[in-house]
Amino acid sequence: MSDLPFGVLDGAIPPQTNSHLFGHNEAQDFLAGFYRSGRSHHAILVEGPEGIGKATLAFRFANHVLSHPDPETAPRFLADPDPASPVSRQITSGASHNLLHLTRPVDEKTGKAKTAITVDEVRRAGHFFSQTSGTGNWRIVIIDPADDLNRNAANAILKILEEPPKRALFLVLSHAPGKLLPTIRSRCLPLKLQPLGEADLTQALSSLGITLDGGRMAQEVLAASNGSVSQALKLMNYGGIDIIAAFAEVTASSGPAARKAMHRLADVLSAKDNDVIFGFFLEHLRESLVARARTAAYAGDLAGADRASRLSSAIAERMTISQAYNLDRKQTIISLLEDVAQ
Description:
This protein is an alpha/beta fold.
């Protein structure tokens, strides 16, 4: 594996250091104009699917605000950050006293990310504001993503949003805003980002040194990535294309052949340090069941749609239990595949 910061996919550029953003021109223009108007909201909910550039946009906007602290004289557009500027250097090194990035912390014992953003992390925001309250500068907190806040952390953030400090800006990122506390959503200005179009996705991948040559694999990547750079990286750099094919083999087979296919797939997914592709598989499984339920409903098979929907919910619950009790991953995967095959 590479020496990228924790949580950043192989082949990706950390959003703190990414000076290019592809797509989302309207969102960038909106943020620049809204800030320049002097009426900028203290909390912006940046929502959209994972891997489409929400974090990159957040750091880009933070750089813009910290580089131009007076809204009236700020440029009308968000420009590519200057890597040589003091603000950019501080942001990329994590040394900015005016920017705090809240994300899931790494467990020192396991070396893996904790399952949630905890209230201890949110307390860092309180300390951050108290340490910088006398500077008169903008203070920006990026919550990445807010979906990972546990209940106590979400309530702690809510208290700060209800009475925000002066010249404070929260950039709240969310892959699934419907799962956030309604009270958090109500205190944020929503900014919805759309998945990248084919041209923007191709450009974004090209900037990472990945050229789609128009062949069959390129077509598969564009179709299966759903406008997400992170999905494309999982497909190409983590074997996602093979996982999709293996899952299709399981669902198309029966008897001993299906059993062998299940074990082959489970062996790959349960291998050590395969958390990224395992998460990819679970998401693909969920999407497959949602598609199955939708197809059954359109065909008038309401019982079939109900079964697929219930199975999707049951799988999510079983995975929560499996992770909580550290159950054997291979056996869990085989059990899931058996249920889907039936």
